[in-house]
Amino acid sequence: MNAVKLFVLPVLATAMMMTGCANRKPAANVDATQNPSTASTVNTDGLSEDAALNAQNLAGASSKGVTAANKAFLAKRVVHFDYDSTELSNEDLQTLQAHAQFLVANANSRVALTGHTDERGTREYNMALGERRAKAVESFLVTSGVSANQLEAVSYGKEMPINAGHDENAWKENRRVEINYEAVPPLLK
């Protein structure tokens, strides 16, 4: 009986973690020709109610908390990691500090932090590593004053590579956390 529990519990935990990721729907695309601060309608056909609401929220971008000094860092929405690491680089800390400043100034902003890994390792290990990376970014932002209610950490592990290659350059690109604004993104114009 104990052997069954030892097998079933990790399997259930992994299934629960993966279910949360599988149900995530991306926000709708906002027409880039529209001015986000004046756009009143966004095409939300085929989206769930939550995703449609997120798409509408994206149309209300904010310039509050955007400065000339942090604009370039706010434009960067990806931080990268070394192999099997959750350590943030100095360059990434500057990027995250700019996002923290914006999020503190815009309490209605919401961000999904999606953790990714390269293709090496098991699916389970990479799901956990992707989560640790997303949580490392989340922890830095919360420590910088961002409300935890504005953040959601999600892991995709090795399931969504940005580069399909099988070499160090591809792996380096795939070891990342993406900063995805789901409500009130920075207006960088």
TrEMBL record:
PROSITE patterns for the chain: OMPA_1, OMPA_2, PROKAR_LIPOPROTEIN
CDD domains: OmpA_C-like
Taxonomy of the source species: Bacteria, Pseudomonadati, Pseudomonadota, Gammaproteobacteria, Moraxellales
Keyword Transit peptide: no
Superkingdom, natural source: Bacteria
Tagged with keyword Signal: yes
Family of the protein in this entry: Belongs to the Pal lipoprotein family.
Name the UniProt record assigns to this protein: Peptidoglycan-associated lipoprotein
Topological type in the membrane: Lipid-anchor
Key words, A-Z: Cell cycle, Cell division, Cell outer membrane, Lipoprotein, Membrane, Palmitate, Signal
